[in-house]
């Protein structure tokens, strides 16, 4: 064998990585390599070749201004629609909650109104001393129902008379009061919160001698005393 045949075979290393490990730039694919840079002249690309390949790579097209404006307009429209739907849903929830509370209040007041005659009988029995035994237990439960509904009574002797709270059925006068007073309560009133469910039936006592009204003194200026001599431009009378 000749000396040339004894040489070891040539080892060729082909670097097919698309990213240059030195510069981090993208490499040109193997099929697009310029002439003269094949495997015979070296498989690895230099840093300069990588920069040239990166510079020659196609650049993504910038969006057209018209397309950007249209996308911004659509985004604004969708945002406005979302805000409108959110506001409408919030108003709907508030309206439903308000209607629900109103229905509950009306039902409670209607049920309480049916118990008022029973409460009147209980109070009359209490005044006569008949509220004892089992009847007292039932009466306490009925009054407990009103308490559970938030209904309270009002109207006691000595309260100032208020037409919005009291219904006057009796009237007299007395020097012991200084203003119209509900001196007698014939039937208590009921209210739930600020809402009056039934006015109290009372007898009203007015003051016997109301405070006199002091008349204002009017100041009268008498202009009849002015003489003709005092008037400007007036001269002596012709003789």
Structure description:
- It contains three helices and seven strands.
- It has 239 residues and is α+β, with helices and mostly antiparallel strands.
- Among the domains are: 42 residues, no CATH class; 57 residues, Nucleotide Exchange Factor Grpe, Chain A, domain 2 (Roll), CATH 2.30.22.
- The strands form two sheets. Strands 2-4-7-3 form a four-stranded mixed β-sheet, with no helix packed on it.
- A hairpin with a 2-residue loop joins strand 5 and strand 6.
- Helix 2 runs antiparallel to helix 3.
Key phrases:
239 residues, elongated, Nucleotide Exchange Factor Grpe, Chain A, domain 2, three-stranded antiparallel beta sheet
Question: What's a quick, concise take on this entry?
Answer:
The protein is of the alpha+beta class and 239 residues long. It has helices at 47-56, 65-127, 133-148; strands spanning 151-154, 159-160, 166-174, 181-187, 189-192, 195-198, 200-207.
What secondary-structure arrangement, pairings included, does this model have?
Blueprint: H1 47-56, H2 65-127, H3 133-148, E1 151-154, E2 159-160, E3 166-174, E4 181-187, E5 189-192, E6 195-198, E7 200-207
Parallel strand pairs: 3-7
Antiparallel strand pairs: 1-5, 2-4, 4-7, 5-6
Mean of pLDDT: 77
Order of helices and strands: HHHEEEEEEE
Q: Output the CATH topology of the domain at 151-207.
A: Nucleotide Exchange Factor Grpe, Chain A, domain 2
Give a short account of the largest sheet: 4 strands, mixed
**Number of separate strands:** 7
CATH architectural type of the domain at 151-207:
Roll
């Amino acid at each position: 064998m000749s000396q040339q045949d004894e040489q070891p075979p040539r080892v060729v290393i082909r670097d097919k990585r698309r990213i240059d490990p030195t510069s981090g730039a993208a490499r040109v694919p193997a099929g697009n390599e310029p002439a003269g840079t094949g495997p015979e002249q070296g498989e690895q690309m230099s840093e300069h070749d990588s920069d040239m390949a990166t510079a020659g790579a196609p650049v993504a097209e910038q969006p057209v201004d018209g397309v950007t404006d249209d996308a911004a307009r659509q985004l604004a429209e969708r945002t406005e629609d979302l805000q409108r739907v959110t506001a409408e849903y919030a108003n709907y929830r508030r309206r439903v909650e308000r209607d629900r509370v109103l229905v509950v209040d009306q039902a409670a007041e209607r049920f309480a109104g049916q118990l008022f005659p029973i409460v009147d009988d209980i109070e009359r029995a209490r005044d006569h001393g008949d509220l004892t035994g089992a009847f007292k237990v039932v009466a306490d439960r009925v009054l407990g129902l009103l308490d559970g509904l938030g209904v309270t009574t009002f109207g006691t002797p000595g309260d100032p008379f208020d037409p919005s709270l009291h219904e006057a059925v009796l009237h007299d006068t007395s020097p012991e009061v200084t203003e119209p007073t509900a001196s007698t309560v014939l039937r208590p009133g009921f209210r739930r919160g600020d809402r009056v469910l039934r006015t109290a039936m009372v007898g009203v006592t007015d003051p016997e001698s109301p405070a006199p009204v002091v008349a204002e003194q009017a100041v009268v200026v008498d202009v009849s005393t002015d003489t003709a001599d005092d008037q400007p431009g007036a001269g002596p009378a012709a003789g």
